[in-house]
Here is the input.
Amino acid sequence: MVMTPEERLAQLNSELTQVRAAITAILSGAQEYRIGSRSLRRADLGLLYTERTRLEKEIAEIENGGMFRTAYFEGR
Here is the structure.
């Protein structure tokens, strides 16, 4: 299924919100925790920063008109 730019933008913003929340959780000391015999370890902080940057770039591309833009150069 092909998404419209608006649908893709909504999906990317949702993912970015989740990545930012994970970064915040790790920075506040929740990298790894244990409840009884179960444990949870969040993604690596460096990986989350990389993903945040990728998502922000893709969002900016969509918001600024996509990959292709028209440019007019006057004379030489």
